[in-house]
Design goal:
It is built from five helices and six strands; from the N terminus they run ααβαββαβαββ. With about 160 residues, it is of the alpha/beta class. The protein folds into two domains: about 100 residues, Rossmann fold; about 50 residues, no CATH class. Helix 2 crosses helix 3.
């Protein structure tokens, strides 16, 4: 629900994926596009519009869109694309059991922090200390390392894990 001009590559990739699955737009699938064009106040109305159309599925790529859709429907399946922290945002109950009518992808979450450290340990088994630079004003970053024992903030924006 961003901008049609900015999201053209994402729309093209989506169209290609749909085509690769055997669908032909306008023949055996109809895709309704909605873009807020940089105006967040439009998002709830766009979400309500899609719900009124009784679409079979909604794909959304931002937290404001998911929030609006979550308020607009509890029955139409919503697929989120790369939402930062869907559990923390309350969109899903957990990765194993999303619950509700929302599912999708995430690129960053507190649950993945431990796995990232495990991967670093695999790459360098002799690793004993890790320093991470993060943005302290980004609410998504706030809980990323707090779950890992030995991590503490040592300044802005550094975090130290031992």
């Amino acid at each position: 629900m961003g901008s049609s001009s900015l999201d053209s590559s994402a729309v093209d990739a989506f169209r290609q994926g749909v085509h690769d699955l055997g669908y032909v737009e306008g023949k055996n699938i109809i895709i309704e596009y909605r873009f807020a064009e940089g105006k967040p106040d439009r998002v709830p109305n766009l979400a309500a519009d899609l719900v009124r159309l009784k679409v079979d599925l909604i794909v959304a790529q931002s937290n404001p869109a998911i929030i609006a859709l979550k308020q607009a429907t509890t029955t139409i399946p919503i697929v989120m694309t790369v939402v930062a922290d869907p559990v923390g945002a309350g969109f899903i109950d957990s990765f194993a059991r999303p619950g509700r009518n929302i599912t999708g992808l995430t690129s960053i979450s507190e649950d993945l922090s431990e796995k990232r450290l495990e991967l670093l340990q695999e790459i360098n088994p002799k690793m004993t200390r890790v320093a991470v630079l993060r943005n302290p004003t980004n609410t998504i970053h706030a809980g990323l390392l707090e779950r890992n024992a030995g991590c503490r903030q040592v300044g802005r924006p550094a975090t130290y894990c031992s």
